[in-house]
Write a structure and sequence with these properties.
The chain has three helices and five strands; from the N terminus they run βββββααα. The protein is an alpha+beta fold and 142 residues long. β3 and β4 form a beta hairpin. The two termini are 28 Å apart.
Length: 142
């Protein structure tokens, strides 16, 4: 399951071993520095561009997904993609795209699948770059 909008006072590691004996990790991604304020009830809110008259704190907002062994770029990518786009959602998008190609559905049914393909390419590039930075292999042993 993907968790989004997580906040941390310290920059999270991109790959965080869980130490559970199963070699699972948390893949933390889309890490961005944000300014926050603590409101009267004690909850933390992200404030875009700072907040006038209020003291802000720098924190890190990020998303996270659990990845099981083997820890490779291919497996991280596959896990993240399948969590974001389950197989039946991906197939539905592809079917609607193909139907639009054949003229069975209006042409605007192509756009969601095209958006998915663009997102898929962006996710792959992000995972590959993070894995290169963290010395994670692209694929496992053959």
């Amino acid at each position: 399951m993907i968790q989004t909008g997580l906040l941390s006072a310290e920059r999270p590691d991109k790959i965080l071993p869980l130490g559970n004996g199963q070699m699972a990790v948390l893949y933390n991604y889309d890490i961005e520095e944000v300014q926050t304020v603590t409101n009267e009830s004690g909850s933390i809110e992200v404030v875009p561009g700072g907040s006038e008259g209020q003291e802000t704190t720098t924190m890190y907002r990020y998303s996270c997904v659990r990845v099981e062994y083997p820890i490779t770029a291919d497996n991280i990518f596959a896990t993240l993609l399948s969590e974001k786009y389950p197989a039946k959602v991906e197939r539905k998008l592809a079917n609607e795209y193909e139907s639009a190609q054949l003229g069975i559905l209006p042409v605007e049914h192509k756009k969601p699948y095209e958006d998915f393909l663009r997102d898929r390419v962006a996710i792959r590039a992000m995972v590959d770059a993070d894995c290169l930075e963290c010395n994670i292999p692209i694929d496992g042993p053959v």
